[in-house]
Amino acid sequence: MFWGWSESLNLLEKWRDHFKADILPGDFNILLFGPGDPRHILTLLAKSYNLPEGISVNFFQVDSCMEHVARNLLLLTVALESGQEMSVRGKTHLFMDIFGNSHLRPASANYLKGRTKFFTKVATDGDFGQENMPMVSLGELKYRERDKLEATFSFWANEGVPFEIKSIWDRRLRENLKTRYDYRNGVFDWDLQMQLRDRGAGQICPQEYTHWRECGIGFVFPEFEQVIPNKTLGINSGNQWAFLGDMTVGPFISFGLNCPDERMLKSQHGVNEYRATDVTERNLMEIFHEILERKHFSPTSEDYHRFGGASLKMGSILPSSGLDSGSLPKSRENFPPLLKFPNFSLTFVSPEDLERFLGQERMQEKFSVIFVGQNFFPVFREEFVSTLHPKGLILFETRRFTTLRKDTVNEFSSQIRDFCSRNSLISLNLPLNQHFSILLYKKKE
Predict the structure, then answer these.
(1) pLDDT for 95-114, tens place per residue?
(2) How many CA atoms lie within 13 A of 238 on its CB side?
């Protein structure tokens, strides 16, 4: 998974809403169990200017593989770039490009290549990482996992190692659809209208969804052209780099369904005024503005695109081999220091060492919030519940925003409810007959 299947949340405010607490614990600890992306971290970072003094927010994140750790480090770094390095708008479009597109703009590809030396030093030199990215700790990862991180960053930078995601995507699409491949537009429309939109993802527009299903490019703007394979989507499968991610939902859920500006969620005669792409752009601009300026975001309608009712020309992906690399901007290796948040920390936990790590005495009743991604629920063991604070909140991501059959979605939610019942967790989900992308629970008092 390269993105989440539920909306970004301010987990601290979610905790406050349910416990009605005016006083926060001095150390507010959050366990992210397979979130898929850094959306919850970024949302809370953006609102950090509202935090009382003396509060430390400590994230502990478990990802399924080191390629996901590397990608999350990259996306977090984009968010923490200084205003001297790039504008909020530039940061937003760079993030969207890396986050949701199978191919990158040349400028995004050069940023990625230029940053790899920095990431390699963060992964291999503890002192360098502590000085230049003090918010992040890789100390809980095993040495061989850090070696995998280094290999991933080397893959990103090495133009001699190919990543033919265009052909990989088409091959997987043909394998998944089989005889339906020739009628794939009808399949895409059914999945969008009868599965995703019917379950609440109405902000996703047919054109953006169909284009993403066809080629893996989710976020399209008329002024940009994506031509270079996005190597951050690569997974080392032994003797080659493959794409093993989602091909049915897309990168639209994390930031593209909800918006503080409700005008962006309007539609007329079933046609949205704004795409999920436009909503994602607006929400990320708010996040990056507030991270940079540490004050409230007050946008105008001119700050973001409005292409819900437009019919954009979706061209085919140009072969990157035809580009004249000499004409592209030279990738950089020297960047200004990242923004500092001394009251925030992010510790990446080894997926191989999870049982030992969470079984330590110091981890018992440590976390005020635990988030469990839907792909990680099958490996979330019952003994891990003991790490939840007595006044803690545990959130389970459901399969609501998927293209799975309704009975499969409901069965998965039933498995979550049965798990919580066995472990004396109380439901906070009302009304009971409503479908949720997140199921919330707390311990019995």
Answers:
(1) 999 999 999 999 999 999 99
(2) 0
